[in-house]
Design brief:
Low-confidence stretches: none
Number of helices: 10
Bound molecules: zinc ion
Distance between the termini: 41 Å
Oligomer: single chain
Radius of gyration: 20 Å
Number of strands: 0
Mean pLDDT: 88
Structural class: mainly alpha
Length: 291
C-alpha cells in the first residue's frame, strides 16, 4: 500500500516538474509550445480562409474551449491523472505477477524498422479510438460524458479539446492492454501526438478542407462537421466516428456526407438547455436530473 502511495506522490511531483520545465524551457520536444503554436497556426488559417464567413473570429465559447484545451492536456494530468495512472499500471502489473506474467508483449516489434513501428502504432491506436468513440455514442451513460464535446454549436479549432476528463480515462484504459501487447507505451511517439493534435485541430476548424482523394484516408473538417450535426440519419447513433483516419468509417459503412453541410445546425436535441460553464458541464453527468 505504501509503495502505491509513493508512486502516486512521485507521479505528482514528477508531472509538476515536467510541466514547469515544459513552460520554462521551450524546445522541439515540447508539447506545451507545440499545442500553442499549432493552435495559433490553425486559428490564423481560420481567419485568412474562413468557411463560414459570418462566424466571428472569437466564436461562441472560444474562451471556454481554450480553457478546456489546457485543462485536458496539462492540468488534469497534474491534478490526478498522471499519478493515478502510474498507480493503476503498478497494481495491474502486480496483479499479472500473481499469475507469473511479467510482461504482456505478444508481438516483438522492436526489431521492426522505426517507420513500421510508427505506422503500426498509428493504425492500431486509431482503430481502437474509432471503436471507443462508437461506444461513447452507443452506451447511454458514456454518451452523457461525450455530450460535453457535442455541445459545440459553432465549430472552430479549439472545440477539438472540449471534452469531459472521463473521456481521457475511458480512451486510455481501453488502449492500454492492446498497445502493451505489441510492446508500446502510450507515449512512445512524440511526433504521432503532434500529428494527431494537428489533424484534430483541423477537423474542427472553420476551414473548407477535404484533402482531395485522401479524404478516404484522412478525417477532415467537412466530414467531422457531419459528426457534430444535430440531425442524424433516422435510427443511427452517430456517423463519421473517425479520429485521425476516415478509412474505418468507409470500411464499416458509417461514413455520411450528404452535402457540404457548411451551415448545418450542430449539437443534439435540446442542446440549448445544456450547461454553459466549465464546472457545470463537468459535473453534469452526475448531477443531471434523471428523466
Ligand atoms: Zn462523437
Ligand atoms: Zn469533434
Amino acid at each position: 500500500m505504501e509503495k502505491y502511495f509513493k508512486i502516486f506522490l512521485d507521479g505528482y511531483y514528477g508531472y509538476w516538474n515536467y510541466l514547469k520545465s515544459e513552460i520554462l524551457y521551450p524546445s522541439w520536444q515540447n508539447y506545451f509550445y507545440w499545442l500553442v503554436g499549432l493552435s495559433l497556426l490553425v486559428w490564423l488559417l481560420e481567419i485568412v480562409f474562413p468557411w463560414r464567413k459570418n462566424q466571428p473570429i472569437i466564436r461562441k465559447d472560444f474562451w471556454l474551449d481554450a480553457f478546456y484545451m489546457f485543462f485536458n492536456f496539462f492540468l488534469f494530468s497534474l491534478i490526478v491523472y498522471n499519478s493515478l495512472s502510474n498507480v493503476f499500471v503498478e497494481v495491474f502489473n502486480d496483479f499479472l505477477g500473481l499469475f507469473g506474467i511479467t510482461n504482456l508483449v505478444a508481438i516483438e516489434v522492436n526489431s521492426w524498422p522505426i517507420w513500421g513501428q510508427f505506422l503500426l502504432m498509428f493504425l492500431v491506436a486509431d482503430f481502437i479510438q474509432w471503436n471507443t468513440h462508437r461506444l461513447l455514442h452507443r452506451v447511454p451513460w458514456l454518451w452523457e460524458f461525450h455530450k460535453v464535446h457535442h455541445s459545440v454549436e459553432q465549430m472552430g479549432f479549439a472545440a477539438h479539446l472540449r471534452y469531459h476528463w472521463m473521456e481521457t480515462i475511458v480512451y486510455k484504459s481501453i488502449q492500454y492492454v492492446p498497445l502493451a501487447m505489441i510492446g508500446f507505451g502510450l507515449d512512445d511517439f512524440f511526433i504521432l501526438h503532434i500529428f494527431t493534435i494537428a489533424i484534430g485541430h483541423l477537423n474542427h476548424a472553420n476551414i473548407r478542407l477535404t484533402y482531395g482523394p485522401l479524404k478516404y484516408i484522412l478525417n477532415n473538417p467537412v466530414m467531422h462537421l457531419w459528426h457534430h450535426a444535430k440531425h442524424l440519419p433516422e435510427g443511427s447513433h452517430g456517423v463519421n466516428y473517425g479520429i485521425s483516419l476516415s478509412i474505418w468509417d468507409y470500411l464499416f459503412g458509417t461514413a455520411y456526407i450528404p452535402n457540404e453541410g457548411r451551415d448545418e445546425p450542430l449539437g443534439f436535441e435540446k442542446v440549448e438547455e445544456f450547461p454553459k460553464t466549465f464546472w457545470s458541464q463537468i459535473s453534469y453527468p452526475w448531477l443531471r436530473k434523471k428523466s
